[in-house]
Amino acid sequence: MLKYRNVAFIGAGSMAEAMISGLINKAGISPDRITAANHSNDNRRIELNQKYNIQTVAFNELSLSNTDVIILAVKPKQAEAVLQQLRPALQDHHVILSVLAGISTRYIEEILEKPLPIIRVMPNTSSMIGESITGISAGKHVNNEDLDLAQELSKAIGKAKIISEKQMDVFTGIAGSGPAYFYYLLEHMEDVAVENGLDRELARDIAAQTLYGASKMVMESDDSPAELRKKVTSPNGTTAAGLEALAENGGGIAIERAVENAAERSKTLRKEFEKVPAL
Description:
Elements: E1 7-10, H1 14-25, E2 34-38, H2 42-52, E3 55-58, E4 69-72, H3 79-86, E5 95-98, H4 105-112, E6 118-122, E7 132-138, H5 144-155, E8 158-162, H6 168-176, H7 178-195, H8 200-220, H9 225-231, H10 238-248, H11 251-274
Parallel strand pairs: 1-2, 1-4, 2-3, 4-5, 5-6, 7-8
Antiparallel strand pairs: 6-7
């Protein structure tokens, strides 16, 4: 069980913090089982230690002897150097989870040159409140127990879906980057509401609850989003007028392009940092 595992985060940025928060506050994992390491940002380590009561250390002082699960949460451009530094300390019992966008399990396996289980996990920042959707892809040395561990960890911060690694780029475009799209939408809804006389805090509550309710309808209904949209759109009504404006201004195309651009960037990262053929 995950609660009896010791977890080390390599990297202490926003994604690592979101996962740490979810594991402690939603999954009930004891802070003394979590360590976070980074290279040189002492203030960030102090911040995480004080906020979550976890152990924090400089990367060059990290010991992995009592660690079971290693979560790679550094920037993709740091991946090769970090993996090279980790390699001598890795042991047969280690399971490695990677949240590195665009970095394949094959690339990690080739650098480590050890038959360790490598699992890509792509959560989003909603893991901070236990509402992430996490994509999971297994490397070639992963067994069912390892995959169960990755699912258990991921479900502690939301929901999890096992997908092929070839699908990870588009998953990143939707789920990894998706929260920012919705924040952008809410930002504009809030602004236009304020321009038309609503208090900003009230406007934010209205817009956020509307998005939350619509999302819940999709998750709890057997109808597709298209069917739900049609059900709430009366001919010549206010919703029809709003949808017409979205279509005229390229709203649907903009959403599609956002996902495609993010997915393409994920592919580009792999080509930039991996020096191996695309999947």
